[in-house]
């Protein structure tokens, strides 16, 4: 597959046409079939190489502890995204779903863990944590699942606190700022994608050939399918805490959700 940089002639602007032609092959797309934006995004990230790909690359540790002998095994894996389950009858926020995603999972019954030390299938706990948070984090909300589409609105925060999800010993103070949303309008069989991205404090929606300014209120009403967050640099922190000289600063900000309560 062609690297994006190879498509660019030296000294010229990048023209997207050759890349768009490659996309059909990347996802084995047949005209008329429903295409999935998440599948395409991950295929693109895996296909392109170099600095563009690296900003999406994160690394997660999976820590498994055997309940019988307490032996702990840690495996690390590269990740490009987080896929979160959403329930049809719940309105828990994105931050709460993220919190649940990183909670210890019990492996038992059919999912029991084969412990090398015990030499048998044992009950165990599995906990995921970030050993490297990507510069750009893709959060995928599993709306299209089991042959249907979940239409629930998922409340979300503009800033994600990632510190609780870091593996022990990793640097603290990790915040991610929302920079883009891809929404899916329609059913599981047919629909339409709209992208909303930020530039500074302004938000713009891209709906085919139509672009429009988007208010924060409209942004928060979006039925997000993919959310894109960017790691916050120190210089960005004040920008998040106090938006300045923008129409957004004068708009009513949605009530801030309290932090997900930690279970003990
Ligand atoms: Zn064991």
Write structural notes for this entry:
The protein is an alpha+beta fold and 264 residues long. The chain has two domains: 1-7 and 14-54, no CATH class; 55-242, Alpha-Beta Complex (Cathepsin B, Chain A). It has helices at 4-7, 17-26, 37-47, 51-54, 94-101, 216-220, 234-241, 247-250, and strands at residues 58-66, 72-79, 81-85, 105-107, 113-115, 120-122, 124-132, 136-142, 144-145, 148-149, 159-161, 175-186, 191-199, 202-207, 210-214, 224-231. The strands form four sheets. Strands 3, 8, 11, 12, 13, 14, 15 and 16 form an eight-stranded mixed β-sheet that branches. The chain starts with a helix and ends in a 14-residue tail after the last helix. The model is unreliable at 241-259 (pLDDT under 50). Zinc ion is lined by residues 66, 68-69, 71, 115, 117-118, 122. Residues 66, 68-69, 71, 115, 117-118, 122 line the site of zinc ion.
Write the layout of secondary structure elements.
Elements: H1 4-7, H2 17-26, H3 37-47, H4 51-54, E1 58-66, E2 72-79, E3 81-85, H5 94-101, E4 105-107, E5 113-115, E6 120-122, E7 124-132, E8 136-142, E9 144-145, E10 148-149, E11 159-161, E12 175-186, E13 191-199, E14 202-207, E15 210-214, H6 216-220, E16 224-231, H7 234-241, H8 247-250
Parallel strand pairs: 3-8
Antiparallel strand pairs: 1-2, 1-7, 4-7, 5-6, 8-16, 9-10, 11-12, 12-13, 12-16, 13-14, 14-15
């Amino acid at each position: 597959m062609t690297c994006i940089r190879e498509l660019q002639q030296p000294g010229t602007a990048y023209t997207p046409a050759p890349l768009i032609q490659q996309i059909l092959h990347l996802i084995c797309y047949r005209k008329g079939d429903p295409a999935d934006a998440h599948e395409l995004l991950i295929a693109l990230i895996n296909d392109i190489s170099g600095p563009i790909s690296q900003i999406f690359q994160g690394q997660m540790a999976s820590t498994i502890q055997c309940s019988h002998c307490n032996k702990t095994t840690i495996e690390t894996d590269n990740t490009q995204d987080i896929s979160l389950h959403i329930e049809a009858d719940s309105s828990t926020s994105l931050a709460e779903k993220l919190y649940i995603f990183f909670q210890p999972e019990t492996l038992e019954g059919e999912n029991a863990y084969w412990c090398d030390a015990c030499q048998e299938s044992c009950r165990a706990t599995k906990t995921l944590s970030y050993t490297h948070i990507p510069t750009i984090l893709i959060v995928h909300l599993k709306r299209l699942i089991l042959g249907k589409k979940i239409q629930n609105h998922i409340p979300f925060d503009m800033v994600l606190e990632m510190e609780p999800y870091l593996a022990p010993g990793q640097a603290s103070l990790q915040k991610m700022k929302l920079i883009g949303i891809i929404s899916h309008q329609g059913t599981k069989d047919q629909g339409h994608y709209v992208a909303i991205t930020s530039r500074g404090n302004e938000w713009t929606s891209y709906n085919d050939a139509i672009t429009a300014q988007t208010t924060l209120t409209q942004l928060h009403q979006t039925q997000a399918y993919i959310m894109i967050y960017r790691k916050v640099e120190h210089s960005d922190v004040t920008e998040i805490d106090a938006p300045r000289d923008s129409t957004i600063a004068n708009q009513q900000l949605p009530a801030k959700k309290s932090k997900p309560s930690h279970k003990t």
